Amino acid sequence: MAVRMTADWSVLPGEVEVIGAAMQSLMVAIRAQPGCVSCSLSTQLGEQTRLRYEEEWRTENDLNLQLRSEQFAKLANLMERAMERPRIEFSLPGGTRGIEYAEEVRGG
């Protein structure tokens, strides 16, 4: 069973281009990682721009390696620019978890 990370967050319209460009280059690096099944970014434009980002990994171990990587640190940095706290969800064999899962995997 594949595992998935989904993140939803809003940014100001003026930040969309910068964050979108950073996400595109980040996604190229992530897709090249062993175990990556897919990753995608979608946007919903309005007063605020909503971003929805998904990564799918072959195994939970593949996901955990990603969570400890420099790419995930860069992704987390981009999400810190959100207008409100991002919603992050991990779909795992044992059920669904929130951001605390990434914190556990990253060691604190």
Features:
single chain; 108 residues; alpha+beta; Alpha-Beta Plaits; 5-stranded antiparallel β-sheet
Notes on the protein architecture:
The chain is an alpha+beta fold and 108 residues long. It has one domain: Alpha-Beta Plaits (2-Layer Sandwich), CATH 3.30.70. 39% of the residues lie in helices and 33% in strands. It contains 4 helices and 5 strands. A 5-stranded antiparallel sheet has the order 2-3-1-4-5. The two termini are 27 Å apart.
Structural class: alpha+beta
Strand order, sheet with most strands:
2-3-1-4-5
Q: Total helix count?
A: 4
**E-strand count:** 5
Shape: globular
Beta content comes to 25-35%
SSE order and pairing:
Blueprint: E1 3-11, H1 16-31, E2 36-44, E3 49-57, H2 60-67, H3 70-79, E4 87-92, E5 95-97, H4 99-106
Antiparallel strand pairs: 1-3, 1-4, 2-3, 4-5
Outline of the structure:
The protein is α+β, with helices and mostly antiparallel strands and 108 residues long.
